[in-house]
Each structure stands twice: as structure tokens, then as C-alpha cells.
Amino acid sequence: MKVLQAALIGASLLAMAGTGNAVAQRTTNRSGTRPASMPAPHVDGAAARAQAIVARMTVDEKIALAHGLFPPMAAGKSPNELIPSAGHIDGIARLGVPLVRESDASLGVANQVEQRRGDVATALPSGLATASSFDPEIARAGGAMIGSEARAKRFNVLLAGGVNLTRDPWNGRNFEYLGEDPLLAGELAGAHIAGVQSNRIASTIKHFALNSQETGRTVADARIGEQALRESDLLAFELAIERGNPASVMCAYNKVNGDWACENDFLLNRVLKRDWGYRGWVMSDWGAVHSTVKAANAGLDQESGQELDKQIFFDAPLRQAVQAGQVSTQRLDDMVVRYLTGLIESGAYDTPVASAAQTPPYAANAEVAQRAAEAGIVLLKNDGNLLPLARTARRIVLIGGSADVGVLSGGGSSQVRSVGGAPVEIPLSSGGASSFARITYHASSPLNALRKALPGTQISYVDGRNLNATLEAAKKADMAIFFATQWTTEAQDVADLRLPDNQDALIAMVAKVQPKTVAVMETGGPVLMPWLDQVPAVVQAWYPGQRGGEAIAGVLTGRVNPSGRLPITFPASAAQPVRPAPVGLDRLSSLEAQAAADPARAANLVLPSFPVEYVEGSDVGYRWYEKKAMKPLFPFGHGLSYTSFAYRNPVVSGGKRLSVTFDVVNTGRTEGADVPQMYVSRDGANQPMRLAGFTRVMLKPGETRRVTLTAEPRVIADYDTKLPGWRVRAGTYRVALARDATDRTMVSSATLDAATMKP
Ligand code: BGC
């Protein structure tokens, strides 16, 4: 079965299992570079400096930097030197090249299946929660916190910056990403990366590109036209790279239009390096390399997690290819120059990892996680102002979701062993993620947090397993709060959008006996809510991180005024999304069944490559709903508050830039944050409106702030492959100043001049 899994979903999953090396306590500083206090060189000089270093290298030294170890599997090094994590590349002491230690870091310094026994870190809420803040500052603060903990733990290259657009609500990895809109995702990923790198640590951006589903992720062939790709997924990367300047780009597992992403000349050479002028290095995903000559010439600079590929393509085979002239010496030099440039520009080169680990300021860092969770919780529904909880409620019952002990987190390489431990941890017995993911809760109990916040209220908990006891408890209480959970993970998609384990039926039954029922949703992404009409209040808490219990309690009690907005559309039915179910799941399931029935044959069962047609093109998410005139359950951008806001005196201006200036007024009685949004489309273009600008404004009751939103020009433009570049057409543009992607109550228009921009 293990071999089958490797073939099906990427060998890294296999390799990540059962790695029990002790945490390294001490390592030798092998770099011999200058002290941390010295300033980084000016960015413009980084490439020149890298070239000068590479000019002094032997071929063997260059080749050694073109591939990296997967630490749990590498032999011949002490655990002190080789910290169990995602990657390791030796330095070159004689030239001052630092050693590199890589850790996953989407939501915190990862430690998936506790490779480093006892090593904890601060766990942020999921990426979708951060995206729901619509606040680059929240994303930046999270990145800065992760980077500081990574440095304390002696990592200096972080595998962060996941910015794949959500094309499908069932993608198992949606929780790690930043939603369905390129502007929002790009802005926040860029801020997150900048935060990580503010610690003089390198960050990646990943997974380049179109790793949009986990089912068959190592064999799926994402098909899409260039214009649509440039206007959607690539635009998210482009914006994030501009804003965050990541040292490295991680190419993805899948194919894009027929070529593996890590040997895709179009993506790596043409778009990334030529059109965007990217100076850093391209590292592969773990187990994503398939060739030497093709990959090297297509723009791959470094093979990561080398033990996970069929062979180490960028070691002896690369040396031979250079000797045979199949890969030029200049190209080999370029690979290493790019690697060093990324390290130099980020500051990692001149600030080597310390020789001993330090303990991060966990208490202060937990505050960063809590602020992010509080900003990211979305109040979806609040009929009759059921929330915040009335202080007069005498008896409240919490139901399910292990709300007595903690909050759920998502699985896979982003998994953090959070401070406080894992009160619930369930290993998987089957499926693509079973070798490196466990269902894991963070120790942040909503029950305890609520009891602390409402000392005068009697608050109890039932786990929901005994139906009669649950309904009895719900009936007796003044109010019920149902904690609904959906676990999702890297390496697996969810088969459908219903809550698992009959939770839908249970919620409906609880709501029937207790009209004052609140649903708190701890889910990886959107789920269907067949009980919505019966439940007056719904709180989307995502995976809220290691202070999730406190954040949820804050929103429920009104200590926190909810301000999150959905970064992803919630479908009203399973039929609404472009692809109702994961493409290839049927084939994968039948293969898994064959393997289970005949384990001896499992090794020979391989999922063949299959196409995934992205027929929606650049009309991802809310744009698809507008195009098809479908009403979602909750639209992109939606989120309620305990106060109310009005937009007044809008003035739209055009010419060279499209902008709207207006007053945001807090018309209610509570301080709160609003997220005004600007959607744009060109008259006559017959295109759905696109999010062109947004901001987050905190206002006291009665306060007014005049705000200007200026449209990102590439969102207004169309990508013209013949130009090639972005083309803004002259004409009249409709501008909606809106509360969500479907709000058309304030639409004005302005005329724009024609313009073109480079790709
Ligand atoms: C994931 C990457 C991750 C890498 C290293 C891969 O399976 O796709 O996101 O950074 O493993 O752990």
C-alpha cells in the first residue's frame, strides 16, 4: 500500500512517515560568514556578488548546491547537524556559503508527525482565515512571527507563501491558501512572504502553478489557455512576487498544458524569469522532478527532497549533462547564482543560523495567532441579533467538535505541533495522506474560553454521540452552540461538500428542539448547509489556530466585533461549482480498492496522467457565479458585523487610473471594522465584475472616514497574448462600491484611457 501511495500522491508522503529522530539541540555553524549584525548588501548588488562567489566554485561545488536532502532520509549526518524537517543543503565553508535548513511554514513552523519530538511552535489560523481578514497587515504579522520562530529553531529557508487560487471548493488544501481572487490572494501572500523575510530568512512562494487539486496531484495535467492563466493563477503569483520578493519559487507537482510544472519552459523561463524578471531560484516540490536536461533547460534551479524523486536528477546526471554539453556551463552557473542571489537578497546569506536553538517568545506570539483568528472569523448569519450571546442567558450547551478540549487544524506538510500540545490526535488508516497526516486539534478549548468570558452562565458540553442525551441537553438549555467540523488535508480532496459523520442531520435535529441554535463552523473551506433556514446564527471559524477557542469565544460574546469577509464563495448546492467533484477521484478510488484487495500487486498500480480542463478560465469563483447567473449560499466578500456601516458621497474618477473615493460611516453603536470592496467591469465586455480594490477600516461608533480605492490596473486589463502584455481598453467602466461580490446597490461609471503594460 505504501508503494501505491507513493505512486499515486507523491513519494514525500511515504518518506514523511515514521521519522522519529530526536530534535537537534545543537549544531555547528558551518557557514563561517560574517556576523548577523552586518547589513545586507544593496539588493542591486546581490546578483553581482553571487556571480563573483560562483566564479570561485568548482563544478562539484556548484552541483552540490543544485540538489537538497530530505533530512529524515539522509544518511551520514548527525541529528544535530541535520535537523529533521523538509530540507537541508550543506554550505561551502571556504567561500562563506551558508548551510540551508528548510522547514514548511504555511501556518507556523511545521512538525507534521512530530519528526522533532517535543518541538512546538505557534500555530496561526488557516490561510483562508487570514484571507478573510482582507488585511495585509494581519498576513504580514503572521509571516513575521513564523519567520522569527523559524530563526530561533535554526531554519533559514521557509516553504511558505501558498497562493494557488481556489478553483474548487473541495480541494483538500484550500485551507492553506488564500481564496479564489487573484488580487486578494496576491496581496496577502506578498505581505506574508515579506513578513517571513523580515527576519532575514528566505521564503518560497508555492506551488507554481495550478496545483489546484490534490487528487492525483502528481499526475494531473491542468489545461487552460494562456490568457486565462495570466489573468488568474499567474496574476496571483505575479502580484505576490512583486509585493513580497520571495527568494525562491517552488514549482508544483502537476503538469500544466502537457509539461510537468518543474520542467515547464513556458512557466519557468518565459513567464517567471523573462517576463517578470525574477532573480531568485526555482526549487522543485518534494518528488516533483522528472528529468535532468529538460528540467534544467526549462528553468528548474534546484531539486528539493532529492530522495523522493526516481533518481537524483541534479547530481551525477546533471554533471554528465554539463560535460556532454546538453546543459550549458552558463546554465549551471545561473542555477547557483540564482540560489545565492535569493539568499543574499533575503538576508539569509549574511545572517547564518545560530549554533544553538533558542526559545521563542511563545506568549507574545500566541497574541499574533489570536489577532489573526479574530480578524478572520466570518459572521455568516445572525437573525434577530442572536449574537452576541445575551449576558442574560443562564444555561448554554456546547455540542460536538471536541469543543471541550480544542479546535481542529488542517493536515499535511503545514501541520504545526502547537504550543499546548494536541488534545486530540487521530492517525489515518488509509488514503493519500495517511503516511504523513493525522487529524490534529490545537489545545484551545472554546468551552473553557466561554466559561471564562461568561462566569455567571452555566455552560456545559455534550459530544453529540448520544442522540437522546444531546437533544435533551439542547432542549433544557436557553441556547445551543453546535461546533461543526470538517477535516481536510493535503494529498486528499474531500469527496463532497457535506459535513461528514451525519452532522447535518444532527444540527437539524438540535435546531428543531432548540430554536436558539448557533452553528460554529470549523471547516477547511465551504460546506453545504442544508439546515441553514432553521439555524438563526452561523459563525465561520475556519481552522482558527492555537488561540481559536479564545477567538471564537470573543466573537460569540461580543468582546470581538466580527469583521471577516469570505475569500471564497459558498455554493448553495453541490451542482453549482464548476466541477462538482474532484476530477480523477473515481479512478483513484478504484485503484485504491484494487490495492486493498490485492496488496501484492499494489506496487504495480499507478494512476495514469489525466487532464483537468479549467473551462472557467479566469472566471474563477464568484466570477463564475455571475457569469452563470447563479445565487450562491454566501457570496465572496460577505460577512456581518455587530454594528452597521454606510457608504456615502462616492466620487468615481477615471482617465489613467480608476478610483472611487467615499465616506465609510459606522452607523451603529459598536466599534468595528468594515471591508469596502470595489468591483469593476468594462461596459460592453460581457465579463463578470472583478475585485479591483479593497481596504479594511476600523471605525468607532458614529465615526466617518473618507477612503479611496484605486483599481489594480491588471485586474481591469485583459491579457493580450499577441501584444504580448496587458491591455486596458478605452471606454466606460462600471464600478460597484460593494459589501460583497453580488452587491450592486452603488454602481457608478467612469471613462478610462487606453493603456498597455508589459506582461
Ligand atoms: C508539499 C509542499 C511542501 C513539501 C515539503 C510537499 O508535499 O506539496 O507544500 O513544502 O512537501 O514538505
Tell me the name of the CATH class of the largest domain. Alpha Beta
Global structural class: alpha/beta
Number of helices: 21
Helix content: 25-40%
Any idea what the radius of gyration is? 25 Å
Beta-strand segment tally: 31
Morphology call: globular
Kindly report the CATH topology of the largest domain. TIM Barrel
Superfamily at the CATH H level of the largest domain? Glycoside hydrolase, family 3, N-terminal domain
CATH architecture of the largest domain: Alpha-Beta Barrel
Provide the residue-averaged pLDDT.
Answer: 93
As for the number of domains, it is 3
State the strand order across the main sheet.
Answer: 1-2-3-4-6-9
Oligomer: single chain
How far apart are the termini? 46 Å
Query: Which distinct ligands sit in these coordinates?
Result: beta-D-glucopyranose
Flag low-confidence runs.
1-42
What this model shows, in words?
The protein is of the alpha/beta class. It has 3 domains: 48-346, Glycoside hydrolase, family 3, N-terminal domain (TIM Barrel, Alpha-Beta Barrel); 369-557, 3-Layer(aba) Sandwich (Rossmann fold), CATH 3.40.50; 645-757, Immunoglobulins (Immunoglobulin-like), CATH 2.60.40.10. 27% of the residues lie in helices and 19% in strands. It is built from 21 helices and 31 strands. The strands form 8 sheets. Strands 1-2-3-4-6-9 form a 6-stranded mixed sheet. The longest helix is centred in the middle third of the chain and has 18 residues, at 329-346. The relative contact order is 0.13. Mean pLDDT is 93; it is low at 1-42. Beta-D-glucopyranose binds at residues 10, 12, 86, 104, 159, 206-207, 285-286, 413. Residues 10, 12, 86, 104, 159, 206-207, 285-286, 413 line the site of beta-D-glucopyranose (BGC).
